[in-house]
Amino acid sequence: MFLLHEYDIFWTFLIIASLIPILAFSISGLLAPVSEGPEKLSSYESGIEPMGGAWVQFRIRYYMFALVFVVFDVETVFLYPWAMSFDVLGVSVFIEAFIFVLILVVGLVYAWRKGALEWS
TM spans, by residue (predicted)? Predict the structure, then answer.
């Protein structure tokens, strides 16, 4: 039978974990000084007087390059548990890992042909 009193520690932790950031933001909002002026609203470039606008557009290619890197970097982390328990799991897991790597290679070839790996 599902008993709610078994989860008292969980609910206590959840309430405290929710209240701490709310209280921290509330207190900092009340105590922080508010001073808006031209220096506060200008962009800061290491103490040098800013040149041009702060809203400079970047090419989407930089973001795509970073996204492809993160995807393949995270996916290779999934290979580590398979490699550590390869001798115990057997041939079926090897075939699954091979299919997984094959899907990664297909994704890499697709990204390469689309030009997502070109920096310039």
Answer: 12-34, 62-83, 89-112
